[in-house]
């Protein structure tokens, strides 16, 4: 299996994550990502230490508390393919959180270095920017959970729904150079769900000189590391594809560079 694919643990012990990515395991500096599955009544308690955290309720209802704030009975969708915006909670570094599951819960924990600039807050569905990108078979549906114009120190968090037979993260683009204002350096993870779950998504990760060039078949519940390079996604006919993106780097701005061979497609999409 490719080193870019991270597979879930099918039988984690206790309240361990079913999927875990750390800067050390990924071989990079900024992004950490975990997924937990909790049963009703279970509680997950963690300190944020030096990282800011975005807790994304992928599915289920929960109570969430931090050192100074709490939100009761939050959550709306039971699974991602209801395609309504999620409830999320932003937690700064040097804080803590406790999540109590009221139903079965799938929780994504997105992490990146914090600077203590912003307090904990609830990100309700009404706070999530909803947009449609692309046209025809590149059309996909976006939930901007923590975009660059909303307060955070490092994290950028977005989820994408790609209909069957469509492409997303397309035209192929990259953000692996600290060369603003043209391009920003952002590490990125993709966490996938596929409906029906026996399906798969296709993701290619490649650089201009092809020092990295992998085409991946990604299953439901797996994650993909994008340390550099272009990274388009395809949903095969018959299967809907969801992914949650987490990005972070030295500067919190998303400036990408399209593959010159395929950049012309972007102008066609705008027609």
UniProtKB/TrEMBL annotation:
EC number, as in UniProt: 5.3.1.30
Gene Ontology molecular-function annotations: 5-deoxy-D-glucuronate isomerase activity
Uppermost EC category: isomerase
Family matches, as InterPro entries: Deoxy-glucuronate_isom_IolB, KduI/IolB_isomerase, RmlC-like_jellyroll, RmlC_Cupin_sf
Protein name: 5-deoxy-glucuronate isomerase
Name of the encoding gene: iolB
Xref: PANTHER family: 5-DEOXY-GLUCURONATE ISOMERASE
Keyword Isomerase recorded: yes
Keyword presence, Isomerase: yes
Matches recorded under NCBIfam families: myo_inos_iolB (TIGR04378)
Keyword annotations of the record: Isomerase
Gene3D superfamilies: Jelly Rolls
């Amino acid at each position: 299996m490719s080193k870019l694919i991270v597979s879930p643990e099918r039988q984690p012990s206790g309240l361990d994550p079913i999927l875990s990515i750390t800067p050390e395991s990924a071989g990079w500096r900024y992004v950490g990502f975990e997924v937990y599955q909790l049963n009703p009544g279970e509680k997950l308690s963690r300190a944020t230490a030096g990282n800011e955290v975005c807790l994304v309720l992928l599915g289920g209802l929960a109570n969430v508390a931090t050192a100074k704030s709490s939100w009761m009975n939050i959550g709306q969708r039971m699974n991602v393919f209801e395609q309504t915006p999620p409830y999320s909670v932003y937690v700064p570094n040097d804080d803590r959180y406790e999540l109590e599951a009221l139903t079965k819960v799938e929780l994504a924990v997105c992490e990146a270095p914090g600077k203590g600039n912003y307090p904990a807050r609830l990100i309700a569905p009404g706070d999530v920017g909803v947009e449609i990108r692309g046209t025809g078979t590149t059309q996909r549906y976006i939930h901007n959970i923590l975009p660059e114009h909303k307060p955070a120190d490092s994290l950028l968090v977005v989820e994408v729904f790609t209909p069957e037979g469509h492409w997303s993260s397309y035209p192929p683009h990259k953000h692996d150079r600290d060369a603003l204002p043209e391009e920003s350096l952002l590490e990125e993870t993709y966490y996938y769900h596929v409906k029906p779950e026996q399906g798969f998504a296709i993701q290619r990760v490649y650089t201009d000189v092809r020092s990295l060039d992998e085409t991946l078949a990604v299953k439901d519940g797996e994650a993909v590391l994008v340390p550099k390079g272009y990274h388009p996604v395809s949903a095969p006919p018959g299967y809907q594809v969801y992914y949650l993106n987490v990005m972070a780097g030295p500067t919190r701005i998303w400036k990408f560079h399209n593959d010159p061979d395929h950049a012309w497609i972007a102008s066609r999409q705008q027609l």
